[in-house]
Specification:
Radius of gyration: 15 Å
CATH architecture: Sandwich
Helix content: under 10%
CATH superfamily: Jelly Rolls
CATH topology: Jelly Rolls
Distance between the termini: 23 Å
Strand content: 25-35%
Shape: globular
Number of strands: 11
Oligomer: single chain
Structural class: mainly beta
Length: 167
């Protein structure tokens, strides 16, 4: 199977994740228009108090929190957080740069390969660090509310192994 469906963060994202029940699809990993992190001063410093983090509004059960930089800019360091709900899934995909993730709370499941096989995935709990090399297919899911921090160097986009189906 070949990598056939290249997407930018803003394209076809409603198909990136699934939430069961009446919500047809969650718009997740990069669902928001790329923007610099809030509260970043002219020198590039960012100070977010943990009790007052500027989380975005939930989008189909997921919240996005830009922390630093802009993931769509070539060579720019970025960091953002995702809070996903039980039932979150992102189908097999790759990124053009290494994806770095830290699990902050909950349990995040990760599997490698071009086919989603939950039996072959591994559960990662709080404090876990995961780095998936550029171009290697991976898939993820959560069975409980989970917060992950994603960081790296842009441009960060998602290339799905199978093109999203129209619903």
């Amino acid at each position: 199977m070949s990598l056939r469906s290249a997407t930018r963060p803003s394209a076809n994202l409603r198909f990136a994740a699934r939430i069961p029940g009446p919500v047809a699809a969650a718009v997740l990993l990069f669902a928001l228009t790329p923007s610099p992190a809030r509260a970043q001063d002219a020198d590039g410093n960012v100070f977010h108090d943990g009790d007052s983090l500027p989380w975005g509004e939930p989008s189909n059960g997921t919240r996005f929190l830009p922390l630093y930089g802009n993931y769509s800019v070539d060579g720019e360091v970025f960091a953002f957080r995702l809070e996903v709900q039980p039932g979150f899934e992102i189908r097999p995909h790759t990124h053009p740069v290494t994806e770095h993730m830290t699990v902050l709370s909950g349990t995040f499941f990760v599997g490698m390969g071009e086919t989603m096989d939950k039996e072959a995935g591994t559960a990662y709990g709080p404090g876990s660090y995961i780095a998936i090399a550029a171009g290697l297919p991976a898939y993820m899911w959560a069975e409980e509310t989970t917060v992950i921090q994603v960081h790296g160097v842009g441009p960060f986009s998602t290339d799905f192994v199978e093109p999203p189906s129209e619903r």
